[in-house]
Amino acid sequence: MVVETQASPLQDGGSGDSDPKVVDKVVIRFAGDSGDGMQITGSFFTHNSALAGNDISTLPDFPAEIRAPAGTLPGVSGFQLNFSSLQIMTPGDTPEVLVAMNPAALKVNLRDLVRGGTIILNSDTFRKNNLKKAGYTEDPRETGDLEGYNVHAVPLTSLTLEAVKDTGISHKLAGRCKNMFALGIMLWMYDRSLEATLGLMTKKFGKMEEVFEANKKALTAGYNYADTVEVFTGRFQVGKAKLVPGTYRMLMGNQAAVLGFVAGAQLAKRPLFYGSYPITPASSILEGLSNFKHFGVKTFQAEDEIAAVGSSIGAAFGGAIGLTGTSGPGVALKAEAIGLAAMTELPLIVINVQRGGPSTGLPTKTEQADLLQAMFGRNGECPVAIVAPQSPADCFTMAIEAIRIATKYMVPVMYLSDGYLANGAEPWSIPEVEDLPGIEVKNATDPEGFLPYQRDPETLARPWAIPGTPGTEHRLGGLEKQENTGNVSYDPENHQKMTLLRAEKVERIAQSIPELEVHGDPDGGDVLVLGWGSTYGSITSAVNRVRDRGGRVSSAHLRHLNPFPANIEEVLGKFKKILIPELNMGQLLFLIRARFCIEAEGLNKVQGQPFQIGEIEQKIEELL
Amino acid sequence: MTAKPELSPEKIKEIEEYDRKIFTSDQIVRWCPGCGDYSILAQMQKTMPEICQEQGIPRENVAVVSGIGCSSRFPYYMNTYGFHSIHGRAPTFASGLKISRPELQVWVVTGDGDALSIGGNHLIHALRRNVDLKILLFNNRIYGLTKGQYSPTSEQGKKTKSTPQGSVDYPINPLSLALAAEATFVARTIDADTKHLASILKRAARHKGSAFIEIYQNCNIFNDGAFKSFADKKVRDDRTIVLEHGQPMVFGKEKDKGIRLDGLKPVVVDLANGADESSLLVHDEKTTDPTLANLLARLEEADESTPVPVGVFRALDKPTYDGLLDEQVATAQEQPNAGDMAALLAGGETWTVQ
Ligand code: SF4
Q1: CA B92 to CA A308: how far, in whole Å?
Q2: Which CATH fold would you assign to the domain A518-623?
Q3: Looking at residue B175, which CATH number applies to its domain?
Q4: Do B84 and A473 touch (CB under 8 A)?
Q5: Interface of A with B in 3-42 (CB under 8 A)
Q6: B100 part of a folded domain
Q7: Is the C-beta atom of B144 inside 6 A of ligand 1?
Q8: ipTM value of the model?
Q9: What are the residue ranges spanned by the domains of chain A?
Q10: Is residue A13 very low, low, confident or very high in pLDDT (cuts 50, 70, 90)?
């Protein structure tokens, strides 16, 4: 690490120089009102942890309401951070430290806190009115609810007001700095460099002098407070993780997808067109891509989901990478058009950032229940390719992969992300441009003997001739096509042939995707945990824990769901038992059973939350 | 902005030689004999060479996009790039195509069911955005392809297979809808009036922005004679009025009738019997005030004597969606980091592990 670790002058003196206790990993959750700045507090601590060399994984928890009334339970916003000196893959099952900015934040989050965990609460907010809004009839500090926890009641608001009173900032803005005071306490508790966070603060607020000064004062005051008052008995240190050398940045899944699609289109040397209609949790992709006009990206906020996919197909007809993005309800609306893209064999990519369903369901919560929709959710025999990123940063890699498949095979690709990946973040080792995979795309330009449905013998892709090319004028459409000529055909034999060809083309994708790798014992064992998409982190962590205890369990993770990697059947056959954990009622399980006629067991959770490592671990133990 | 590609001398020569045949595909036309669609197709194939020559557009830069319905088979018969899409959604595919490829000339062919029922939303939004599309709505006031159910433009009380006692739906007025959606070019013509039809196609092609053209089209199988009362050659001059910019509103075989406003109500006056031409309404397709166009869109409803207007109701200059977006992209591409992949990947807060 090149991070400066020189001691801050502020660290001198006080009780802080007692030796901090070294721990492997810590899970912290910051929780408060939507207006309390918990996301920024969390991201500041994340940044500091990154500079300290930890491995990190984060997950925000946004309230479903945009601005629920202050102090109420629906208004609570949270940010969970797992930082460690070991390799970690999830934001952590249960926080060990909870920073609660008001009674509502305490109430919502207390049940997740580890028994005996630490609570830092803003005692200034534990007044009658706020307690009532949070649904407390009595002050939880006095009822015994908090017994067994290590509780620090700190008058965060008044201490902050006192600390910033000389800055000339308004009372309202002054009060808002209390999150930085809390952050200061946390930095002290984890023996962190104040300078590192002040540096980031300069970047973020530097231009607004008063705001910067006030936040800086609040942060340092919080740090000094913790150092001086001697009530924070435990001070901890989380060492550097062994990370692959390189330059890193934090990436959230949707942000990674944005970068991946922009990069993928550049690699394919084709313009990127994104047609989309705002929907949670996919909207940040539309917002993100609208900032990439300097890469020639055109975004189109359509009038509805159908128009969004229609415009993308139109753009693909015109030679662009046609991308549309939505969540499950939107995919339902796009189904007919996806069928058209399959029939016209155009490179369309559909992002589905899955959320809890059915219907409007749980818009801000995660689920993996659209796999069968991606697989079968269209009229007729209509196979499409399906890919699924396995972690926030993998959203980048799989975006490029989706473009590769769509253009190589002239086929629609479903890209299954989810709410957890979309908002979760992890460090991403920034790749060198030349290390990115090349994507070779050809457009048909030779009118000589041109036939719009004459297939490439290897991939079965039809040629992509785009408007503006003289001599290759042709008509596409949703009516069945005659083989080769692409003319409308009602011929019975032809329909059967074309149906088989469309299916075979999707199957052939397996020839160019990586084999399924086994983590653990490649030669087989007692239990294989098979997963797909966002469950990668919890599954792998659970398997590692059991293996550390000597359990003969392995895991394999699918990022390609249609077609499956070519060796999947072989891999499955090597294990006595197959466990498939999914955030749905058993959709991959259904496909695996149907496809390979093998027995497998599901672990199914539909609570709008990712798996905890412990939940999978327990299930593995049951099977072993 | 995406510059219009310079045409080579060979290309210019090639375009000069375009004729109807070059726009005619090898597919057998499968509309019912006598269908009004034939006439529209013929006029389109005939005028396209002129349009291309006038604007310097090579055939390969022309695309025809349609939805579903009898009219939507149109692209198969044009020897250009074509896309027969799904029901009601043609404007969406066409918008995506035009926005990503502003140099193309994109036509949309749709029908009353396609554009006004299942695809109403897309029509409205394509028009309000002013995407540079030429939208031809073949209005036959019936569902033809599904064999004869009433459509959103069918008159109330119409007896069809799905409304044996007569439909209770009130019809929609396509031009009023287009005007409400802020279409910058709104026109109407009739399938059988080939000369007028050709002239409107040419006007639409010249318009920069969304052009909406309602074409009264006879479905001789399921709704024969729907427009006979005014479109028939024998009565056409007396029952229709051809709108001409800057001209007083005169019509009739003998040019002896005019339209005057009586308060807010249009009335027909008899020029032969002393009515003064200077008191007549004068057509103005360029006014941004929508009042006149709205009034004309419903002229025939005023009373039994008011004629059905055909021609250009409105033609406004207004920047297009595709043009404005293209400008934003072009400006962004002048940024020093435009297209810099390394900068793309390394943006945001970074740290280094050694
Ligand atoms: S059904 Fe009517 S509109 Fe359709 S092709 Fe026949 S005549 Fe034309």
Answers
A1: 7
A2: Rossmann fold (3.40.50)
A3: 3.40.50.970
A4: no
A5: 3
A6: yes
A7: yes
A8: 0.97
A9: 2-238, 249-435, 518-623
A10: very low
Percent of chain A with pLDDT over 90: 92
Residue B140 CB–ligand 1 contact under 6 Å: yes
Q: Examine the domain organization and report whether B315 and B241 are in the same domain.
A: yes
- Note whether residue B339 is domain-resident: no
pLDDT in tens, B8-67: 999 999 999 999 999 999 999 999 999 999 999 999 999 999 999 999 999 999 999 999
**Domain total for chain B?**
2
pLDDT in tens, B51-104: 999 999 999 999 999 999 999 999 999 999 999 999 999 999 999 999 999 999
CB pairs under 8 A between A and B: 211
Asked if pLDDT for residue A231 goes beyond 90, the answer is no
A43 vs B contacts (CB less than 8 Å): none
Residues B34, B57 share a domain: yes
Q: Is B83 helix (H, G, I), strand (E, B) or coil?
A: strand
CATH value of A249-435 in 2.60.40.3080, 1.10.132.30, 3.40.50.150, 3.40.50.970: 3.40.50.970
Q: How confident is the model at residue A207 (pLDDT cuts 50, 70, 90)?
A: confident
Q: What is the share, in percent, of chain B residues with pLDDT greater than 70?
A: 99
**CATH topology agreement for domains A2-238 and A518-623:** no
Q: Give me the DSSP letters along B205-254.
A: HH-SS-EEEEEE---TTTSTTTTHHHHSHHHHHHHEEEE-TTSB-EESTT
Phi/psi of residue A99, nearest 5 degrees: -100, 115
pLDDT tens-digit map of B200-245: 999 999 999 999 999 999 999 999 999 999 999 999 999 999 999 9
Q: Is the pLDDT of residue A233 over 90?
A: no
CA–CA distances in Å: residue B272 to residues A84, B188, B254: 96, 28, 9
* Residue B219 Cβ < 6 Å to ligand 1: yes
Kindly state if the Cβ of B35 falls inside 6 Å of ligand 1: yes
Which of A50, A64, A105, A56 lies closest to A83, judged by CA? A56
Query: From atom 2 of ligand 1, which residue's Cα is the shortest distance away?
Result: B219
- The Cα–Cα gap between B133 and A310 comes to 15
Same structural domain, B243 and B258: no
A249–B344 C-beta distance less than 8 A: no
CB contact under 8 A, B86 and A271: no
| Residues B111-147 pLDDT 10s | 999 999 999 999 999 999 999 999 999 999 999 999 9
> DSSP per residue over A188-240, as a string?
HHTT--HHHHHHHHHHHHTTSHHHHHHHHHHHHHHHHHHHHH------EEE--
- Could you list the residue range(s) of the whole structural domain that residue B70 is in? 9-247+283-331
Q: Is B37 in the pocket of ligand 1 (CB under 6 A)?
A: yes
Residues B148 and B30 in one domain: yes
Residue B337 touches partner A, C-beta closer than 8 Å: yes
Q: How many residues does chain A have?
A: 624
Where b means 16+ CB within 10 Å and e means fewer, B276-296 reads eeeebbebebeeeebebbbbb
Q: Are residues B217 and B263 in the same domain?
A: no
Write the CA distances from B298 to A109, B41, B262, integer angstroms.
63, 28, 15
Residue B124 lies in a domain: yes
Q: Tell me the three state secondary structure of residue A362.
A: strand
Report CB contact under 8 Å: B96, A310: yes
Q: What region does B332 belong to: left with phi over 0, alpha with psi -120 to 50, or beta?
A: alpha
Cα–Cα distance for residue pair A549/A577, rounded to 1 Å: 19
Ligand 1: residue of B40, B70, B109 to mutate (most ligand atoms within 8 A of CB) is B70
| A281 prior amide bond cis, ω within 30 | yes
Whether B87 and B223 map to the same domain: the answer is: yes
The answer to whether residue A335 neighbours chain B at the CB level (below 8 Å) is no
Mapped onto helix, strand or coil, the DSSP state of residue B137 is strand
Task: Name the fold adopted by A2-238.
Answer: Pyruvate-ferredoxin Oxidoreductase; domain 3 (3.40.920)
- Residue B32 lies inside a defined structural domain of this protein: yes
